[in-house]
Specification:
By secondary structure, this protein is mainly alpha-helical. It is built from four helices and no strands. The chain is globular, with a radius of gyration of 16 Å.
Length: 79
């Protein structure tokens, strides 16, 4: 039997997430896993990033909390 999304998902009017939103969502998921005591290597596999990214996120989270992991607006000249 092939995968069939639920009707609420299939007919959703929500737009797909942008790349920065996806990156922030990975960070949020990583924080949830930090709090559950999951290792960096397991978090990296779960969210699809390298272990170095997870180590950096953990360091920022311990110093600045969840606000430290928020994406910042791009700087410089607009396109």
């Amino acid at each position: 039997m092939a995968y069939q999304p639920s009707p609420s998902v299939a007919g959703s009017a929500l737009p797909p997430l942008s790349r920065p939103q996806l990156a922030e969502a990975r960070g949020v998921r990583a924080v949830q896993l930090f709090e559950d005591g999951v290792s960096n290597a397991e978090i990296a596999r779960a969210v699809g990033v390298c272990a170095e990214s997870v180590r950096r996120w953990r360091r920022v989270w311990e110093q600045d909390g969840a606000l430290g992991l928020r994406r910042r607006a791009a700087t410089g000249r607009p396109p």
